[in-house]
From TrEMBL, chain A:
The keyword Zinc-finger does not apply. Its main location: membrane. It is a multi-pass membrane protein. It comes from Enteractinococcus coprophilus. This is Multicomponent Na+:H+ antiporter subunit F.
TrEMBL record, chain B:
It comes from the Bacteria. The chain crosses the membrane at residues 12-32, 52-78. Keywords: Membrane, Transmembrane, Transmembrane helix. Coiled coil: none annotated. InterPro entries: PhaG_MnhG_YufB. The lineage of its organism: Bacteria, Bacillati, Actinomycetota, Actinomycetes, Micrococcales. This is Multisubunit sodium/proton antiporter MrpG subunit. Belongs to the CPA3 antiporters (TC 2.A.63) subunit G family.
Length: 106, 134
């Protein structure tokens, strides 16, 4: 057994532990932002797993996927963060004073 | 079981891969154990930059060629650019949507800024409303 494949199996075990923790937080996470963070961790586990696979099989097949995964993670967490803030404002906004049909408020 | 290796680069790659993925496991434990969003974010952002850097460096040592190094640098730079921005957005959303226990914060400079901003917005709204009624 080469030292690289031994390290690869140990690494996949660590990645599985990280994925389990993140999955638990996605299922149980009280806040939407907890789930956003956990999804980011899942994506990083995916990227690291692809990296370990490439190191074990001496290939460069998935290197583009590692780049794309970081971009997708950025888009997803940015969208969720914006959505959360907008939702909070919508929930807490005072009801607008109702003007008549010819009221001054536009 | 005899552990074999071709060159010292295999040993370096093995150490880097194990260290990089260990950070992912640490992030998983942090997500399990930490109490609120910001401390979970503290644990979860470790593998995004350092963990991926160690894993990609391990991949570079495992492949033993210079051809892939620029692509690895691009992959890591993408993560390095996007991770702080998304973490900033998530932290801002955490504060603004009141997912945060104020008792856990020692110094809170943002509260004063938000209070003054909201007061100024309310005054502007009141002035607009008064002008509209005239």
């Amino acid at each position: 057994m080469s030292v690289l494949s031994l390290a690869g199996w140990i690494s996949l075990g660590f990645l599985a532990l990280g994925a389990i923790g993140a999955l638990y937080r996605i299922v149980r996470g009280p806040a939407l932002l907890d789930r956003a963070i956990a999804v980011d961790v899942i994506l990083i586990v995916l990227s690291s797993g692809l990296t370990v696979w490439m190191a074990l099989n001496d290939s460069t097949h998935f290197i583009v996927l590692v780049v794309v995964a970081s971009l997708i993670g950025f888009i997803s967490s940015a969208t969720l963060a914006r959505f959360t803030v907008e939702g909070a404002h919508a929930n807490q906004a005072e009801p607008e004073p109702q003007q008549g049909p010819t009221g001054g408020d536009v | 079981m005899e552990i074999t290796y071709d060159s010292w680069m295999d040993i370096v790659a093995a150490i880097l891969l194990v260290l990089g993925t260990l950070l992912s496991a640490v992030a998983g434990f942090g997500l399990l154990r930490f109490p609120d969003v910001l401390s979970r974010m503290h644990a979860a952002t470790k593998p995004q930059v350092l963990g991926l850097f160690l894993a990609l460096a391990g991949l570079g040592f495992a492949l033993k060629t210079w051809v892939v190094v620029p692509v690895l640098i691009v992959a890591w730079l993408m993560q390095l650019i996007t991770a702080p921005v998304s973490a900033h957005l998530v932290g801002r959303a955490t504060y603004r949507s009141h997912h945060l226990d104020p008792a856990h914060i020692a110094v809170d400079d943002l509260a004063k800024v938000i209070y003054e901003q909201e007061r100024a917005d309310a005054e502007t709204d009141a002035e607009d409303r008064a002008n509209g009624r005239q």
